[in-house]
Amino acid sequence: MNVEELRAACLHLKAVEESFPFDNETLVFKVMGKMFAIIPLERESPSISLKCNPDRAVELREEYEGINAGWHLNKKHWNSVEGEGVPSNLIVELIKHSYDLVVAGLTKKAQKELNEL
Predict the structure, then answer these.
(1) Using an 8 Å Cβ cutoff, are 33 and 106 in contact?
(2) Are the CB atoms for 50 and 37 separated by under 8 Å?
(3) 2-30 per-position pLDDT tens digit
(4) Of the chain's two ends, which shows fewer C-beta atoms within 10 Å, N or C?
(5) pTM value?
(6) How many domains are contained in the chain?
(7) Full domain range(s) for residue 91
(8) For residue range 32-68, what is the model confidence (pLDDT) as tens digits?
(9) Tell me, what CATH number does 84's domain have?
C-alpha cells in the first residue's frame, strides 16, 4: 500500500482526525484525541506504526511472512509494518485492530460520544 492508501484506510474509520503534531514529515491519526496510527512520510518505502496487542502481533507474524514487528514508543505495544509487499487486507486488519484497541481504552463517556456520531 502506498501512503495515500494507508491514509484512506485510517480516515475511513469513524471520527478519525489526521494531523502533523511532530513535524511536517509524520502523519498522526487519532480517534477521540487518542493516537492509533503514525505514518512517517520521509521513508523510501511506505510504512505505518500501529497499536497492537502483543499476542495478536505474534499470531499475525506467524500467519503472514514479511511482518517484522518493531516494538517502540516505550514498549507500549506499537508495531511498525512496511506498506510494500504486505497484503493490503492485512494492513487494513491491523489498522482496524489498532483503532479498536484505542476505542476500547476510551472512557465510557468518550465511547458513548463516539457511538452517537
Answers:
(1) no
(2) yes
(3) 889 999 999 999 999 999 987 888 999 99
(4) C
(5) 0.85
(6) 1
(7) 3-116
(8) 999 999 999 888 888 888 888 877 777 776 777 656 5
(9) 3.90.1150.30
